[in-house]
Design goal:
Layout lengths: L5 E4 L11 H8 L3 E5 L4 H13 L2 E4 L5 H5 L3 H7 L4 E6 L14 H7 L21 H24 L3 E6 H17 L4 H5 L4 E5 L5 E5 L3 H11 L2 H5 L6 H5 L2 H12 L4 H9 L4 E4 L3 H4 L3 H5 L20 E2 L2 E2 L14 H7 L4 H9 L3 E2 L1
Parallel strand pairs: 1-2, 3-4, 4-5
Antiparallel strand pairs: 2-11, 6-7, 7-8, 9-10
Helix pairs in contact: 6-7
Amino acid sequence: MGARVIKVERTVTGDPERKVEGTFGVVNAGKESISVDLTTEQGREVVHRLVGQADVVIESFQPGTTAKLGIDYDTVSNLKEDIVYCSITGFGQTGPLSQLPAHNISITAETGVLGMGGLSGEPPEEKCGVYVGDLSASMFAVISVVGAVLQKVREGKGSYIDISMSDCCVSWVSGVWGEYNNGLTKEEVLDHPAHGVFEAQDGKYMAIAALVEKHWQALCEVLDFPDYMVDPAFETVVKRRSKRDIINKRIAETIKTKEREHWLNSLRGRGIAANPVTTHEELADHKHFVERQLLDTSKKVSPATGVAFPALINNERWGKKRSSAPGLGQNTLEVLKSLGYSDEEIDNMDVDGIISK
């Protein structure tokens, strides 16, 4: 969004996520990196000076760790009282689970994300392809930080923000949870007639959603199901829900008779939501996203540098020209000089292993 983000990493090894190159590249594109040993007094002093020039501090240590390192909110806010400080953890700063380790699957399991999916009587599906826990927490963190910065501008005071991955996931499942609380089964909540993924004759997959009546009628015409159009047993989505397996089996058999492109054109021509199940290879030069300037194909597209900020602001994209993720300590020298450290002081800290540059 245009902010300058300086990532503070441990010396020698840096962020453990560096070992997962693809993921690290995506979430750290456009950032700067300084490498500092926070277990030393001089290392903490570097961060304290940096806080003096910052608007926001974000940390994701286990609760209590920042206090041991001397970079907790109480310490930092004494250095700069209007700082916006955001802590992101698995289960929050308080509560009986707050000290537990957390990974995406831990969070989705504990919060019902895994338990609410899948079919009744079958094991939960652990693979959804997207890290829901991590990303939901990141989004709520950004939203909260922006709100806190606005409050800071208006009222001149800082904020402490406690973001829990588990809290965020509970928020995201609340809509589906409400349906369960109304007595619906998993199948009634998740499985809909004329709604699903189907394989075409060429082996390619597509998604179809024809829930409202006009789309159902159009679907029956395109797929040549005249009997469904006149049978009272299929006249409402509620009635069709109980026949979901029968309907979707017939749709699957019909879609299998022709290639995907044929069905996409035919169904879309009648206003029905029909879309290809896009592979990651196909996504790299997807015409729609290229035209919207989300993807930049002028260079080798990577999720790290080739995908812009997803919101259009005044018809422009933020982050279209983001740099790649920084090397460990790539910006240490530059940042330390901007904080007033002399060349001799920097060299001494380098020799002592307090920083790496």
